[in-house]
What we know:
Order of helices and strands: HHHHHHHHHH
Structural class: mainly alpha
Strand content: under 5%
Distance between the termini: 49 Å
Mean pLDDT: 85
Low-confidence stretches: none
Oligomer: single chain
Amino acid sequence: NISSFLSSNFLINAIYFFIFSIVWITMLGFGSPILIVSGILFGKWIGTIISVLSISIGALTLYSIANFFFKDIVKKLLERKFEKYIQLFQKNEFYYFFIYRFVGGLGVPFFLQNVFPVLFNMKKVNYFFSSFLGFVPGFFILNTVGAGLNSYIEQAQSFSFLDLILTPDIYLPIIMFIVLMILSLIIRKIFFKNVN
């Protein structure tokens, strides 16, 4: 039983998972699996705290490495693609990067989201806190899905995909996710309307 194992070794497992998440993101891993697994292992509240903090640190670590060692390569590869974003982010890097994180990075792969601020030399403190705050809504929803999966598996006598989808612990986060996506599209239109 996952719950009993975790509760007996909670702090150790949380630390292991925290460190693994930082390393995973630093090594160009994507965030979604971490979010679902943290919800399954630690529940929606603690899972969200662990994943938001660890992924924010991992992203900052990756950004710092890219900015220090690979700045010229990043500029050569990404500058033309992100040219319109650079001008926008230079106006107010914290504000626009927070919005960018909140809307899921406008469809840009996660590891590129993490390194592209090299192009406008974003301050590390702004990078961390705009990421941290921007991550919270989406990360909470995916952790809630993970927690719902764990709850369903523990309670169900047999697996049924329809029963799984109709479980409030699953369909409510999915509805929240759809609402967040619609909100993200509206925000994208407002704040990134001149960026194609």
